[in-house]
Amino acid sequence: MKRSEKLPFGRAIIDRRTGLPVGPIAPIYEEDWPYKRISDSEVLWRYMDLFKFKDLMESSTLYFARPDKFKDPFEGRLHPGGDNNRSKSEDAFRDIYKIMGNQSEYSETHRNVVFILCWHRNTREIRRMWDAYTGSPESVAVTTSGKALRGLASRKLIMWPVKYTPLDRQRTRFDHSSLFFYKPSEYAFEREFRLLRQPCDGEVFCFDDANDEYRRVQICLRKIVHRVILHPEADGKTMDAVLDLMFRHLKGVPLMRSSLDVRRSAIKTSG
Questions:
Q1: Average confidence (pLDDT) over 214-234
Q2: Per residue in 109-122, pLDDT tens?
Q3: Are 49 and 136 in contact (CB under 8 A)?
Q4: How far apart are CA 105 and CA 82, in angstroms?
Q5: Strand 10-11 vs strand 26-27: parallel, antiparallel, or unpaired?
Q6: How confident is the model at residue 266 (pLDDT cuts 50, 70, 90)?
Q7: Higher model confidence: residue 1 or residue 218?
Q8: What pLDDT, on a 0 to 100 scale, did the predictor assign at position 168?
Q9: 259 vs 7: CA distance, rounded Å
Q10: Which of 172, 217, 244, 268 has its CA 20 to 30 A from that of 199?
């Protein structure tokens, strides 16, 4: 099935030899479809500790992590209720093709061979995101836009907002990657926009090797990083370290104090 933010007519099992459906087209219901497009102008945030910002600056790469290493145990999985409380789209598809079981074995394998990068959708800075994704005031947030990230789409990347659903509602696997665009409702504050790197042809995986728990995607820093914001409690030493990194790698991009910082004095720019 071609992936689109527009609701498809339906889905079917396709014969790879002919490219034709082997049976009737099963309907897809709008409330089940996970893919929704964001606007080019939407602001996206990434909160990070200073050592991660340093890595971003010095490597000019985005770091994609393997989802089986995430804290959320339901990443890329069906829900723990098995076949209970399936979506209308899934019921229709299974009824037409007489499919049994929950296909969880395939999901487990796929969790080891894709890599994910997460951004936060918002027009403003959120304290809860600082607390969730940074370990100390030695940290920053960077912003980008939907348009800037879509410029990376030619590099085997899939990108969509995450769909938040209760754990007692079954997730629908419309294609090989759709399960990675669901998260439990309790994470809804994250308002996540997710980039997923697919396996490349001939790519080799070593699941027990720590060096194989991530992939990097090369970027032009100035095209992706539009602003850098200091942690609300960042001290002068942290500010100087960030300014130094930006002077060497990101001249011309503004460094700003947090909107949550009571010390809202101006900061000189990096170039």
A1: 97
A2: 889 899 999 999 99
A3: yes
A4: 12
A5: antiparallel
A6: low
A7: 218
A8: 83
A9: 38
A10: 172
262 CB burial (10 A radius; 0-12, 13-18, 19+):
exposed
Helix axes 236-249, 50-59, angle to 10 degrees: 10
Burial of 9 (0-12, 13-18, 19+ CB in 10 A): exposed
Q: What is the mean pLDDT of residues 39-65?
A: 98
Tokens of 153: 């789409």
Work out the burial of residue 39: count CB atoms within 10 Å of its CB; fewer than 13 is exposed, 13-18 middle, 19 or more buried: exposed
Helix H, strand E, coil C: the string for the chain is: CCCCCCCCCEECCEECCCCEECCCCEECCHHHCCCCCCCCCCEEEEEEEHHHHHHHHHHCEEEEECHHHCCCCCCCCCCCCCCCCCCHHHHHHHHHHCCCCCCHHHHHHHCCCCEEEEEEECCCCCHHHHHHHCCCCCEEEEEEEHHHHHCCCCCCEEEEECEEECCCCCCCCCCCCHHHHEEEHHHHHHCEEEEEECCCCCCCCCCCCHHHCEEEEECCHHHHCCEEEECCCCCHHHHHHHHHHHHHHCCCCCEECCCCCCCCCCCCCCC
pLDDT above 60 for 271: no
Cβ atoms of residues 61 and 218 within 8 Å:
yes
**pLDDT value at 2 more than 60:** no
How far is residue 180's CA from residue 153's CA, in Å, rounded to a whole number? 17
| 118: β partners | 194
Q: Reply yes or no on whether the pLDDT at 269 is more than 70.
A: no
How far apart CA 224 and CA 196 sit, in angstroms, is 17
